[in-house]
Description:
This protein has about 250 residues and is of the alpha+beta class. Helix content is about 50%, strand content about 10%.
Amino acid sequence: MSVERDRLAEDFLSFALLAPRALSHSHLLKELDKRIAGWGITHVAACVMMDHERRFKVGPMFGKPNMAWADVYFGEKLYLDDPVIDYAMRADKAEYWDEAFDSSRIGKPARRVLSMAGDVGARDGFLVPVPLYNGDIMVVSYQGERLERHPDVAGVLRGLAVYFGTEGQRLLIKSKLRSGRFAGLNTRQMQVLHLAALGRRNKDIASELDLSVKTVEYHLANIHQQIGARNTKEAIAIIHSAPETLSDPD
């Protein structure tokens, strides 16, 4: 490994070690920015999700998404012809853009999307499809003029993408629990419902919050009554039906 690649891997690995101890989501992003600035990565984005019915939708963004490009990308629905996204929706592993598909076999609309991406400075990228607990797929992409190609770097990027996929979903759910029919829940009830919405089982929630399983069940029963849900599954469905606005709660 070259000295440059070694330093790049160390930068990302140090960030990966920092992630679990980060004070907030915004703090974590600042630390990420420090590490990617000098390594050819212009921005990081997680902005396309697809539900179980294979419909595209805008998801949480983080890092430095190019908003001008995002407006065009979503406004013109370029994701419908994007070969990178098409790969992500079928893939079970992370990959560099140019290794994800055969560029000589893609159609004119797909080539147009790649050309437009290059025009805004995204000429190389590392793509990670992140399956979420509810069946959605979050596409996390590290983009720039060039990306260092080394197994250690790829491994760290993959790990960061999975972290941000989980973190993005956590923030999304937390923001929804602050409004509407959930506004009347107390702090403990919100904690319990939040973890349930993240796919935790009652015994896992009990362990994480240092409660008994019966206490978790008690909180869930009260939540159901307060928000008008017949059970926890319906309560989670109500969360997902709420408007998708993401803000940093920290």
